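Quick start: what a row looks like.
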Amino acid sequence: MDRKVYFDHAATTPTNPKVLSEMLPYFTGNFGNPSSVYEIARSNKKDIEMAREKVSKVIGAQVNEIYFTAGGTESDNWAIKGIAEAYKNKGNHIITSAIEHHAILHTCEYLEKNGCEVTYLPVDEDGKVSVKDLKEAIRPSTILISIMFANNEVGTIQPIKEIGKIAKENNIIFHTDAVQAVGHVSINVEEMNIDMLSLSGHKIYGPKGIGALYIRKGVKIRSYIHGGAQERKRRGGTENVPGIIGLSEAIERIDANMEVEGKKLINLREKLIEGVFEKIPYVKINGHREERLPGNINFSFSFIEGESLLISLDMYGIAASSGSACTSGSLDPSHVLLAIGLPHEIAHGSLRISLGESNTEEDVDYLLEVLPKVVSRLRDMSPLYEDFMKNKNN
């Protein structure tokens, strides 16, 4: 099969050629260590600060509130662990949700083994956190609320502004994992009362291995990596200059194109959803129908298994996902799909399509041509489907 169609932009995106071209000089001529005193070092230090300003503008932050990291996972780890340590004399209780990325969930589980108490808020069938549940979960010992901006699997956007207001009223630090949201949803950390925000380069057509953590001025947080004075003494280690430049170019570019690109993705998304419901029976869409990321679609197909579906699509040159890329090696159903109330057998039959800049109507048409055939073939081999049809016809 010569045709290749990529529908997994929530897992990673290709580095945009313009972004790459801006990065290349920093691998060769502009290679100086920004901590040194000679000209090529000072020049790089200046370029890093210009990059920091570009990132800050996109989310409405101040320049000195942006800290560069190695990616979203590091940013999440730093936010959660850093606050837990810095505020341990005030309290030990953290509130998060049951559908967070594992960078949050596993960090919270680690902290639970080290004296912290964590409340994992449930979500409704659309994957949304209840503001009422959040309010009721707050204790005198609550030091941190961490709720993702938009879910990586089902695309649901959370009521971030309301959550931020509640956190501020109760004098609690509010962190959001915005790795999936940045560049796709308008974000202003001041208006939304966000105290910390995680983002990543490779989700927005930038390079892998670079991210950032926004930390509001005045928030106490412990240093994450010791060994140098970089990032205002909070994260030691020689700066990843090419990565930082790439991240800043990528975020500036995607922010400038967000409105036009968002409309395009929504049109493709709706075309695909309508086509699937028209051509394939016994299918469910997961996540909120409207309040979701522009390019995210998550289906559950009854009577088939997601892994087989992905392998079959791959044979036609179609790359997609059955959930988070970080857990694709697991045989367990998605924790997100279980949290929204799907039974195991339905959750196992999930397909995530995440659209991106390169996708066209022709790509969607191709998927709508291939997917019904693949689903039908897999169901023909399913004893569950056979039993269902027998009972239905009796």
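That is the whole record. The CA atoms of residues 210 and 243 lie 6 Å apart. The radius of gyration is 22 Å.
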